[in-house]
């Protein structure tokens, strides 16, 4: 797909050194990015599920593609729904629900998450990822 095409172009460029590492900035495409030759990820999901994101990437890099796919599937709703509002609004809300923050408050110009609109979706994403509240 598009990720592979972009990575192929970058990796074939004679001006890019071997030590130039390529990282995904989109959690939802990280596994495909790795499969296409990427080296890792700058992750939003890892703020909520750091061990599971690490395990997913490490599993793929260690050759356990099935395990990486299973973990990525568990994280998929988080990958998507952590962007229901501007970052870090949903992340702070999730961390608050997980008991890791005392408040979901964001500094202006950001506002707190509209819980009525997004609470059930985010709670479902947390549950699907295996995160206990």
Walkthrough of the structure:
This protein has 133 residues and is mainly alpha-helical. 52% of the residues lie in helices and 3% in strands. The chain has six helices and two strands; from the N terminus they run αβαβαααα. A two-stranded parallel sheet has the order 1-2. Helix 4 (65-81) packs antiparallel against helix 6. The mean pLDDT is 89.
Tally of structural domains? 1
Please indicate the percent range of residues in DSSP E strands (runs of 2 or more). under 5%
SS-based class: mainly alpha
CATH fold group = TIM Barrel
* CATH 4th-level superfamily: Aldolase class I
Q: Total number of β-strand segments?
A: 2
Cα-atom Rg, whole angstroms? 17 Å
- Largest sheet, spatial ordering of strands: 1-2
- Percent in helix: 40-55%
Topology order in helix (H) and strand (E) letters: HEHEHHHH
Broad shape: globular
What is the top-level CATH class? Answer: Alpha Beta
Please give the count of helices.
6
Average residue pLDDT: 89
**Main β sheet profile:** 2 strands, parallel
Termini separation comes to 36 Å
InterPro entries: Aldolase_TIM (IPR013785), DapA-like (IPR002220)
Keywords: Lyase
Protein name: 4-hydroxy-tetrahydrodipicolinate synthase
Pfam families: DHDPS
């Amino acid at each position: 797909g598009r990720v592979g095409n972009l990575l192929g172009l970058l990796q074939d460029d004679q001006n890019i050194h071997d030590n130039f590492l390529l990282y995904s900035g989109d959690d939802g495409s990280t596994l495909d990015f790795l499969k296409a030759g990427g080296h890792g990820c700058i992750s939003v999901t890892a703020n909520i599920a750091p061990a599971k994101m690490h395990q997913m990437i490490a599993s793929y890099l260690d050759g356990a593609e099935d395990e990486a796919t299973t973990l990525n599937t568990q994280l998929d709703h988080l990958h998507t729904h952590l962007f229901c509002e501007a970052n870090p609004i949903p992340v702070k809300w999730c961390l608050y629900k997980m008991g890791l923050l005392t408040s979901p408050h964001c500094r202006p110009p950001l506002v707190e998450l509209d819980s009525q609109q997004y609470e059930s979706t985010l709670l479902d994403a947390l549950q699907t990822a295996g995160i206990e509240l």
